[in-house]
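Researcher: Batch entry, complex prediction.
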Amino acid sequence: MTAPSTDTADANAKLAFPIIVSIDTMGGDMGPAAVVSGCSTSAKKNPKLGFILHGPQDELERLVAKRKNLAGRCMIRNAAGVVTMDDKPSHVVRNGKGTSMWSAIESVRARDADVAVSCGNTGALMALSMIRLRKLPGVNRPAIAVLWPSRNPQGFNVMLDVGADVRADADDLLRYALMGASYARNGMDLPRPRIGLLNVGTEEHKGRSELKEAYELIGAQADAAEFDFVGFVEGGDIQGDVVDVVVTDGFTGNVAIKTGEGTASLIGDLLREAFKFTPLSRLASLLAYTSMRRLKKRIDPRRVNGGVFLGLNGTVVKSHGGADATGISAAIKLAAQLSEQGFNDKLAARVARATALAEESKR
Amino acid sequence: MTAPSTDTADANAKLAFPIIVSIDTMGGDMGPAAVVSGCSTSAKKNPKLGFILHGPQDELERLVAKRKNLAGRCMIRNAAGVVTMDDKPSHVVRNGKGTSMWSAIESVRARDADVAVSCGNTGALMALSMIRLRKLPGVNRPAIAVLWPSRNPQGFNVMLDVGADVRADADDLLRYALMGASYARNGMDLPRPRIGLLNVGTEEHKGRSELKEAYELIGAQADAAEFDFVGFVEGGDIQGDVVDVVVTDGFTGNVAIKTGEGTASLIGDLLREAFKFTPLSRLASLLAYTSMRRLKKRIDPRRVNGGVFLGLNGTVVKSHGGADATGISAAIKLAAQLSEQGFNDKLAARVARATALAEESKR
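Model: Structure tokens for the complex:
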């Protein structure tokens, strides 16, 4: 982390756009130029968007000045401090004031922006978000939800938690189901999403004890919360068409997404090698170029770039650390979509209703 | 499970081959014909192999008679009972006598065969193996180890546990590391395998408490047990080249392999679709045919078909339930290789030495 220093002179100024996205321009591998370029791409596509950019004022002013379509649509909040990928979350919580990440979350807390986007250190971003935005009533453990390429008609599943916390008890898993259902409803336009609980077998007697308990809890809330509970699902169902939302603890979910990404990357490399192997296959690769591009686009993680932090008083989108302008723009698009639909307020209401229902059934 | 009835008239007969593989011919999706066909393929490739086939005598005699190269190399043990994929392990342990699975394990227990192969119900096979073969001294939880396509020079990593038990404490994880090292040494000819412990980050402070404890235990045994401990690894390293053995609990490992298989299968389907999309891409797919076959072979799960049960008094290879003759033959090849090298005795000695060392260090 570098030494913090914040200029809040323009803190009271407001941008007149329907959707304001607060953006941490530092902490990603590609630097603020890629972030500003991503904002420019998003601004072209969506006229409703305005941006609050957090980072080094001079550099951001220079970068924004180069993009004509960003004129009048950005506000810059100077924050010289940077949270690095190696900073421990606990350290950032204590000393992070004045960093671009802290400042970006602060804009959501102050309601200057509807949603924050950062490609920085995930652990630090979650820790800061929890401390500054606070958890929603009824939520003990917030979760990170991602979209995952699948055989579903919509092309993606929601999976959560993928790494906010390494533990989750049955009550947490129920909250994840409710939050995931809200996300699928608002982020993917599915009126009645199908929810599955990740396990090592689909039989009811299998798996860890907290999963059996969560199975009962989630099943009992399905009707009231308007989702279909399909029961236990396995790792092979994450890319399938039996569920829209996969619920799991953050340890398992994190291993699963990284395993899936690693597998896709290995196959991609082997595919490239295969195409280079003979003159005939090199010719084939030329002919198949557009088909391959289409496939690559279909499973390109940059297109669905953005883990969403759920269960907080405010929405935070975590973009991939290595995201380029295309990736940043995808994260902004997701943030804007959730913000426009008043997603977080709906989610909060849903969790509150479920909590009340659970309390009632205990009486 | 169907009604059992066993004929042990030929129980004292012996086959005069250096390696005897005991084979459960029932319980797989493709039936005994595929299993016998797989034996025939293996017999052609390896003249050292003899087989004890367990299942319905009449049908097996008919199937074996059709394969000239199996003449004199098979012994048939009649077992009319079949363990189905839906049978609960506890039920099979109580009532499984007379099934082909029980009978196949019995041949290893009686030392008539060196190793057993089955494509039946994994849970039942593990439960029966534990009850009949018993755990090795020093092993509390046996594990299932699989080979996984990776960027390693040998083309594969070992991962364990992938589903023998949903729990594992720090001591279990240490045993998995030792057993995985033995497997990599004997099954992949790696004199000093690199061991990694699966976690959600590579930093030492991350993850669950039992993982931090296991980290210390495994690191302390690395020199004595002749492996390199690379520390924590992530889901994306399973297909990488930083480790030869990935150690994890059976819940996480099971989700990881199924996620990896599901991802590979989705990409395969999308690839086929992409090639069908335009006349040009259809032409490309013809030109790329041999390259694609090469790629498919490289990541074909049938080539490395076989999870190995480690930590028992005897080796059991679990073949995929949907395995065809090629898959069965791969499982038999693996079984033969491990058997030939006296793998299980070496593994037992290694675990015993490590247990003594750990006891000593506690004094």
